[in-house]
Amino acid sequence: DAILKYLATVNNVPDHWYPKLPEKRARVDEYLAWHHANTRLHAATVFWQEVLIPLMTGNPTNPAKLEKALSDLDGTLDKLENMFLKRKAFLCGDDISLADLFA
């Protein structure tokens, strides 16, 4: 996300991508920080359990570990929908932003 924040800041991109107003920018930054420890982590864990570990080890997926990973991801997606989207089209306002690209 550092590269996209940098590019949005130094280039003349439309403000909705990474707002200049601190209050609006903070909403995008809030999601991006949350994303790394939640959406990204849990989606990556599912990918590890379901695809990479079996591919690298030649062993089948561990059903209990995969079920736990899927449950964690489901909880995260519920939070994403209820905390950030709240029945809106975009995560951090009325227009698409970097947060939506990451999600």
Automatic annotation (TrEMBL):
Give the GST C-terminal domain ranges. Answer: 21-103
Return the Gene3D superfamilies for the record: 1.20.1050.10
| PROSITE patterns according to UniProt | GST_CTER
Alphabetical list of InterPro entries matching this protein = Glutathione-S-Trfase_C-like, Glutathione-S-Trfase_C_sf, GST_Theta
- Example GO biological process: glutathione metabolic process
The terms describing its cellular component in GO are: cytoplasm
Gene Ontology MF terms: glutathione transferase activity
* Name recorded for this polypeptide: GST C-terminal domain-containing protein
